[in-house]
Amino acid sequence: MKKFQFLLLDAGPIIKLFELDLWDEFITRCDVTICRTVAEEAKWFVDPVEDARHDVDLEVYERQGAIHIKDINTSLVGAFFDKFNLTYKAQLDPGENETLAFMDTSGEPWCMCSSDAAVFRVLGLLGRANSGVSLEEVLRRIGLERSLDWKYSKRFRENYTRLGQTDAIQGQGLR
């Protein structure tokens, strides 16, 4: 059994895992699910040592059964997106919106790993603070701990989740 179940990944952590050359080990330790739009967003990365672009084909990993790629009904995504005011709408990219919509409508205990403030703010706003996780936290939990930039840290996640919770208390963020 894998150490981390029901894990949804956003494009930022996927790219970072490839940059760190941890992707293959990561997916052996985590049950990874990615929405189709995120898979399209994470098509390449730049190796910081070689300063060279490398293509990423996540569908190869799906065909091998190592990850799951989900296609989400566009009307579901649209209905989710329509919940928010213009400020929140402007912050969400299509992959984040699709993944959050999937998570919001699923009955499973999904946890979303992202490096984008908007994701954690939305989770805080919707009262789902415990449904977000930073890459730092996942790597620590599965025994692959690394020193990472601020946007991949637990403190980053907690900061933006609190901002979303504050918006919820103040009645801001939703239509």
Explain how this protein is built.
It is a single chain. The protein is an alpha/beta fold and 175 residues long. The protein has helices at residues 11-19, 23-29, 36-41, 58-63, 74-81, 86-91, 94-105, 117-125, 135-141, 154-169, and strands spanning 4-9, 30-35, 44-47, 52-55, 68-70, 111-113, 132-133. The longest helix is centred in the last third of the chain and has 16 residues, at 154-169.
CA-based gyration radius: 16 Å
> Helix segment count?
10
SSE string? EHHEHEEHEHHHEHEHH
Shape: globular
Roughly how many Å apart are the termini?
41 Å
> What structural class results from the helix and strand content?
alpha/beta
Main sheet summary = 5 strands, parallel
Q: Which strand order spans the largest sheet, edge to edge or round the barrel?
A: 5-2-1-6-7
Average pLDDT confidence is: 94
How many individual domains?
Answer: 1
Low-confidence stretches: none
- Portion of residues within helices: 40-55%
Strand content: 15-25%
Per CATH, which architecture? 3-Layer(aba) Sandwich
Count of beta strands: 7
CATH structural class: Alpha Beta
CATH topology: Rossmann fold
